[in-house]
Amino acid sequence: MNGLRRVAVIIGYEWRRALAKKKFLAMVILVFAVQITGFVIFNHLLTNSPMGLEVPLEQIKPLIWTLEVLAPQGFFTVLIAIMIGGGSMSEEYEHGTADIILSKPISRIEYVAGKYLGGLSLFSFVAALTTVLGVALSIAFFSPQESLQFVPHIYLAVVYSNLVFLSLAFMFGEVLRRTSLALLSAIGVFIASTVISGILAVVHMITQEQIYLDVSKWLPDWCVVNFPDFVTKELNINVPLLGGMFGSTEEAEIFLAGALIAVYTIVFVVIAVVRIIRSDVTKKTA
């Protein structure tokens, strides 16, 4: 069995292990519920338009799929990424299966590559399901839809942006080797980053000092939350009335967000790889 085959076996094992967890399935169902709730809200607004907003709301209909696809982005998709990444490595140590797997004819690089790619492919599959559901609901109830040729672009933007917290949780899982600690640490970073970004935005509004916005852009939540919106704007998909959601974006911002995602992801993955290569074969944790 060559290296690629061994990695593929670990990827398949990661899928079976993750899909067996009820918490993961419950989170996926919750994301679907959020999308359906968003559809109900949009449907109510478009069929019971407030006075004076009939034209703008009618103009939203052909692009409602963008709102449906991006509705879970920035919170629920991040939580799913954290759940997938956080338990990937740590649960093997807690259950004592890491020793068994690493005693097989497989290198640690192949092992960590299979675990990470398994988690990434699983998250990509979940993101594909939410994307298809959002587009299907929009076509079924608000057809015809425009700019559907850009669905793959936005889907890839969602997957790419969530690499940050998927990789962060994966790193914590390997470094801490406790699932609960890994999940809490990754969620804590996400919440702290979000809160600090909000504080910096408020300070900017009060002082009008650009430095506060510049600092907030280096926090991980900025690139994760905004990159899909930047891509949407770059594709010239403009939603009337909700233009502030995508806002006016400078071309440099989309490249900065994309670069930050790459840097964060590489750093987190490298730390996890170095940790597993340099550490002793683990024993079952108490």
Sum this structure up briefly.
With 286 residues, the protein is an all-alpha fold.
Question: Any overview of this molecule?
Answer:
Helices cover 79% and strands 0% of the residues. The protein is mainly alpha-helical and 286 residues long. The protein has one domain (3-278). Helix 5 (76-95) runs parallel beside helix 9 (163-176). The longest helix is centred in the middle third of the chain and has 35 residues, at 108-142.
- Summarize the helix and strand pattern as letters: HHHHHHHHHHHHHH
Mean pLDDT, as a whole number? Answer: 83
So how many helices? 14
Fraction in helix: over 70%
Q: Please give the alpha-carbon distance between the first and last residues.
A: 34 Å
Strand content: under 5%
> Regions with pLDDT < 50 over 5+ consecutive residues?
51-55, 241-248
List keywords for this structure.
79% helix; 286 residues; mainly alpha; 14 helices
Note the topology.
Blueprint (H helix, E strand, L loop, with lengths): L2 H17 L2 H26 L6 H7 L3 H7 L5 H20 L1 H6 L5 H35 L8 H11 L1 H14 L2 H29 L2 H7 L3 H15 L8 H4 L4 H28 L8
